Amino acid sequence: MMRKPIIAGNWKMNKSYSEAMTFTREVNQKIPSEDVMDTVICAPAIFLKGMEERAEDTPLQMGAQTMHFENSGAFTGEISPKSLADIGISFVIIGHSERREMFNETDETVNKKMHAAFREDLTPIMCCGETLNQKEEGFTEKVVSEQVTKGFNGLSKEQAKRAIVAYEPIWAIGTGRTSSPEDANKTCGLIRQVIEQLYDNETAQSVRIQYGGSVKPENISSLMEKEHIDGALVGGASLQADSFLAIIEGAKV
Ligand SMILES: O=C[C@H](O)COP(=O)(O)O
Predict the structure, then answer these.
(1) CA 50 to ligand 1 center in whole angstroms
(2) Pairing verdict, β 38-42 and 6-10
(3) What's the CA-to-centroid distance between 220 and ligand 1, angstroms?
(4) What is the ipTM of this complex?
(5) What percent of the chain has pLDDT over 70?
(6) What are 143-192's pLDDT values in tens digits?
(7) Is residue 170 within 8 Å of residue 139, measured between CB atoms?
(8) CATH numbers and ranges of domains, the chain
(9) ∠ at Cα 189 (188, 193), nearest 5°?
(10) Which of 28, 37, 163, 194 has its CA 20 to 30 A from that of 150?
(11) 171 is an annotated ligand-binding site residue
């Protein structure tokens, strides 16, 4: 099955608002049509509305880096799924390893957020991946299978098909150490198998799976050539317009 590639930049806590607006202006006219590929920037939440407005007539789409699962309430500092949908945001990263490590995100909150995303018609990019220790002890399959199984718990087949999974080995994030395309493809294939066991082959073949972890213009093509890799979640290399555009170019395989 031909799955549409999806390249998403995750800016994390970087850039000023004016830098974000300059970036959007610079890349705006150079983003491929949505028929060819989905192109997303997951920016700090306070930049999103301005960027969304600036990119309104272009194929560039915006995503949030996290959100709460409730739509309102006494959750000081949190951002609701409904408010993201309300300003025209299409995607949301859920369960990034930095959120799991530093902000108490668990498989249970990830699952609640997956349901919340679909409730508000946001497309979730659900992250999973093992630590270096887990990899060295041979636990990659176990860790990733469990994260995917728990993250997808209770999702309908239709919802599961629309979800995006980002496989990000934690030891490859921001380290310059990329997983080899073969290893990345193997784990992305395993994720597809887990989804097939949870649902069926058709669903597993529909889900788009990204690789993330030190993706650069130099390695994107060799990753994208692999059967189970449908895109990338890019941190550091998404911060500069030229490297982000080069990754998009390299993803057109
Ligand atoms: O969400 C993105 C990842 O954490 C990857 O970051 P990186 O490309 O800087 O390694």
Answers:
(1) 24
(2) parallel
(3) 13
(4) 0.98
(5) 99
(6) 999 999 999 999 999 999 999 999 999 999 988 888 899 999 999 999 99
(7) no
(8) 6-250 (3.20.20.70)
(9) 115
(10) 37
(11) no
